[in-house]
Amino acid sequence: MKITILGTGAYGLALSFMFHKNNHTITMWTKFEAECNLLKNTRENPTLLPGIKVPEEIIFTTNLIEAVKDADIILIAVPAKFVDDLCLKLQGIVAKNTILLIGSKGIEQDTCRFVSDVVEHYLSNEIAVISGPSFAIDIANNVPIGLTLASRHQDTCSIVKQALENDCLKLRPTDDIIGVEICGAIKNVIAIASGMLDGMQLPISTKAMFITESLHDIKSLINALDGNGKTILSFAGFGDLLLTCTSEKSRNFSFGKLIGSGASREELDRYLQNTTVEGLYTLQSIYQLLRNKQVDMPIIDLIYDIVNHRKQPEALLTFLIEKA
Length: 324
Known about the structure:
By secondary structure, this protein is an alpha/beta fold. 52% of the residues lie in helices and 12% in strands. It is built from 15 helices and 8 strands.
């Protein structure tokens, strides 16, 4: 198969190794000429995946038309806020039988649309969504990884499984696209709060309590938005929440830890200048989405107030005890 990956971030690069392991033809696209040249010339990105060499067979380009031509599967792996502009450019240049595999996670701020909604607004192709507990460096190092694969059609799941699954990567299929997207987006927000608890030097027992409470709230949100509440028990649900909420490899967790430890606004701003914290973008989106849908989720309101209105992170402890 020809696999095209749109985005040369850590996640896209890591998944390219999995496709390469299965002997597919892989083209990766970036709109940044400098990034493309770096990867072509050095076969690595020392900032994103230090010490990991990209196989010589993987092609890099800034030409979007050439990248998507004759692709069997296109993996969308750019940040959520750039998906709209990308899909607009894809109109008219993607073959109708190409599967669009969504690896981007999040919710648009202005429209409160999930990534799959954005893609379907512009393109009529079959889509699938992939999500689960997986740091890019771990995928690249060929350790066992489990991901959830969501599509409305079994045939689409089968094609993606054939292309991507191997002795390192396990895919569990579901038809609950909305549930998987909710889990993939909101876990970054919950991880910020979990990091706050760590920054306040609370033990793992308290964080476990918080994660458990969050599971119940996310399940209720999935049901309220017509997804399948059981998805919370999948790789995309509990698996990803556990990983993101307990590891300092998570940028969202690390940002929350700074807040919880009492970092100044200047320290937080310096961190954000050098680090992409997807949970911050998603927090604004999901806060508005909950109001649009008239869904009550107090933990999101509280995180929003701590991040945006300088409410003290200790309010998380009061929330947990009252909720319990």
